[in-house]
Design a protein that fits this description.
It is built from six helices and 13 strands. The protein is an alpha+beta fold and 250 residues long. The protein has a domain of 139 residues: ATP-grasp fold, B domain (D-amino Acid Aminotransferase, Chain A, domain 1). Strands 8, 9, 10, 11, 12 and 13 form a six-stranded antiparallel sheet that branches. Strands 1-2-3-7-6 form a five-stranded antiparallel sheet. The protein is globular, with a radius of gyration of 18 Å. Bound molecules: thymidine-5'-phosphate. Thymidine-5'-phosphate binds next to helix 2, strand 11 and strand 13.
Length: 250
């Protein structure tokens, strides 16, 4: 059921953000729209919004349990969550544990190569420019964030990586790489924001060796492999299993 909401604040490719009756809170609606290659490729994937909302809520809970500050407050309905209102920093932070995607297109590094220590890449979040890779010097020149904030973002991202990688490993899921966005709330606190879902992560099934069949994330859509929603469903099912086991054990 659609919750009561105020005015639309922002509409992105996969989510809509609405006002609530509290200034510091927003309602986030997860859409079924899937896009890739800066929205050159589009589809409506029934059930995707609901699954990404639930997966994100669970993963934000995993992080919050370890004192990682996130914008997530609660899930209100299948496709909706309440989050702290933040100003999004226009950077996409990608942490990579295994080489895939643009890293293999843009460097001689071969897909599947383990990256130890993990690699952190920063991108400038700007659709018109195609979200280009950005350097420390360009971030400073554009005045996007201070170097202290950049260090805080990088440290938090590596911490998120360890927590998510270990959590997913227990479920036989390999966290290949993922993208985070950060926001600043009205108190000036830096929060992991946006979403953490198979739209924004690469996740491989550790139980499957076949390099295509093991893909449980948006690469199924990017590469026309089919079974996108089923793959997201498998990720959700395993995460739900972990949460219900924890509840039974405690
Ligand atoms: P990349 O290999 O295309 O650079 O993607 C790295 C990770 O970031 C991958 O898990 C997918 C995610 N990602 C997004 O969430 N949004 C984007 O716009 C892009 C390009 C990647």
């Amino acid at each position: 059921m659609k919750p009561d909401h105020g005015q639309l604040i922002y509409e992105g490719k996969a989510k809509r953000i609405f006002q609530t009756d509290q200034d510091d809170r927003v309602l986030v609606e997860f859409k079924n729209d899937a896009t890739a290659f800066n929205a050159l490729k589009r589809a409506d994937l029934k059930g995707k919004g609901k699954m990404n909302c639930q997966i994100s809520a669970y993963l934000f809970e995993v992080l919050q349990a370890e004192a990682v500050p996130t914008h997530y407050l609660s899930q209100v309905d299948d496709c909706w969550m309440i989050a702290q209102r933040v100003e999004i920093i226009p950077l996409e932070v990608v942490v990579r544990n295994i080489a895939a995607g643009s890293l293999c297109r843009e460097t001689p590094i071969k897909e599947g190569e383990e990256l130890s220590p993990p690699l952190l890449d920063l991108y400038f979040k700007d659709d018109e420019l195609g979200d280009p890779l950005i350097t420390e010097a360009r971030i400073a020149k554009l005045g996007l964030i201070s170097s202290d904030q950049r260090l805080e973002i990088e440290n938090l991202s590596f911490r998120v990586n360890i927590l998510l990688k270990n959590f997913l490993k227990r479920l036989d899921l390999i966290l290949v790489d993922f993208k985070l966005e950060f926001g600043i709330n009205k108190n000036g606190q830096l929060l992991v924001s946006d979403e953490i879902s198979p739209d924004t992560c690469r996740i491989w099934d550790q139980r499957i060796l076949d390099p295509k069949k093991r893909i449980l994330d948006k690469d199924r859509f990017r590469q026309d492999l089919g079974g996108v929603v089923d793959a997201y469903g498998e990720v959700l099912k395993r995460i739900q299993g972990a949460f219900s086991n924890d509840r039974t054990c405690s």
